[in-house]
Amino acid sequence: MYIYDKYDQQIVDERVAQFRDQTARYLEGKITDEQFLPLRLQNGLYVQRLAPMLRIAVPYGLLSSRQLRKIAELSRDYDKGYVHVSTRQNFQFNWPSLEDVPEILAGLASVQMHAIQTSGNCIRNTTTDQYAGVAADELEDPRPWCELIRQWSTLHPEFAFLPRKFKIAVCASAEDRAAIHVHDIGLEVLHNAEGETGFRVLVGGGLGRTPIIGEEICPFLEKEHLLTYLEAILRVYNQHGRRDNKFKARIKILVKAMGPDAFREAVEKEWQALKNGPTTLTAEEIARAQSFFTAPDYVTADADAAAAELQSQCENDPIFANWVKRNTREHRVAGYRIVNVSLKATGYPPGDITDQQLEIVADLADRYSFGEARNSHEQNMVLADVRQDQLLELWQELQKSGMATPNLGYLTDVICCPGGDYCSLANAKSIPVAEAIQTRFDDMDYVYDLGPLDLNISGCMNACGHHHVGHIGVLGVDKKGQEFYQVSLGGHQGKDASIGKILGPSFKQEDMAMVIEKLIHTFVDLRQGDETFLDTYRRVGIDPFKERVYA
Amino acid sequence: MPKLIRDGAIVEDADNTEVLDLETWLGCDDRTSRAVVLEPGETLEPLFAHIGELPLVLVNFPTFTDGRGFSYGRELRERGYTGELRAVGAFIRDQLTYLGRCGFNAFQMDDESQLEEALASLKDFNEYYQASIDQPLPLFRRRA
What we know:
The structure holds two protein chains of two kinds. By secondary structure, chain A is an alpha+beta fold.
């Protein structure tokens, strides 16, 4: 993973000192609430319903065991001993006090972490595939590019007061696991006929109040121009994005208003002033970034023997076998598997992890996965480099600590924002809805029979729970002060991304599990062969579901 | 006389140069003796042809959260403007580092009593990743 040198450390340390001073001046009354707002947001600090919320940056989701232990320690010392994995692969603290935040940031800086630009109208954490570097379907590792973007966007002087927040995601694999079609900028790593790396650039995708799939504005951008081209896009957005209406301020509205062709022209024009300038990436810098993401020292295993042993372990223990089947994925190196650490046990808020569990993941990472772990945007964690012959031991440890729920990618692996239990923006609670659905569908064999199914829940139209791209999406809405839930169907986050279609009038909280059950029954009745929920929906449309639910 | 920060020091501004809005400035005969003030939302394109005639540019920040002026600064400097670039309006001291990096060398704050303390904010950071006006090379071309 990327390791700070003296420059990176100095920048993060100076940021801590700056925010320490700003917080002190705020507490002394020298900065108004209005002035402090963007300053604290750009250091990750929200004011929530019951307490502040601090969002910690986890660049492209990658963490060392040392960092995990520090997060555990900070959550114990300054919070209630648990944190939340967000859909931007970050960690969130739910109960810190404002006065303690500078100390928390100093603690983070001591392990090369920060909370810079995790909120506010600026460039946010760049996200990517949680299986980056190990996925079998990968063209090349996207993380060096993410790191180059991270450095370029960190404390960028020109783009700290944009019309609205700005999110970039990078995908370098056949399957898009980074949802690049619904980001302000989505970058798809490609190789041209000469084998040179470049990027397909999508702009203006997004969720929120107006969900839109991004438009391609460049089919192949040569790699050295990545940062100058991004700078040109941001400059056009900074100058022309709407600032009169918060709900129309995202770049997607600008791209739609100008049209993709006019937007592309504006970017090209701005780019001419920047192209080939000093921000053009050098071969040395690209190589430097790549040098941090080399393959660890994989043991060359006797793949056949390891596979045979795993086979026999699976035959001896069907519960283990099931977990291997559901929660591990193919690794590009023979003899290794990618292990997903589930944070979706029924009865616990999706994506929450305790300080003790964090320490266990850190220990397991050290023992089984070269000391590294990842956060996924589906709010689970990943140990990416596990030897096949160590899967059984690892599973036993995960079982003991409640992190082996074998539901990855199935109905009960719910994506869910913190919702009205925590968030002051929320219209409705989301965690109890997730729990009611998980409880209703407690027959795992039935859940497996349904096949892969994304159920995404957001407590408001800010869409932190990515409800628009759930095969089933649930959105909390406010109806005259009461919490209701709107259901949408047919959203999808892959390369064939689609935005869900609203089913009809919204439902009460206590009816939600039943509504989901009716949708599932409809699917089961209409399903042909091995169709997934999405396949069936795309074939039959929304009407049969509507008729059943509102009958 | 109004006080402002210029090139890192607090000075009293004895300059009485007349300040015109962009359209008026572009249309006037004696541009080299008049300053121009830029407002958010203006198109700078027509100004670029007259960079050499500008004696002083003011960029107004009606609200501190409107970041368009940051791009103005860089665009003017990137196109060769070397004179005084002055931020005026509602910007706050916590933005001084970023403004400086975007090419601003003068800061006229609404509240003059804050100038002394604000000077410290110019030095919030001593190292940066990006290329900018004060440091034309990005860190990756300078790492030792």
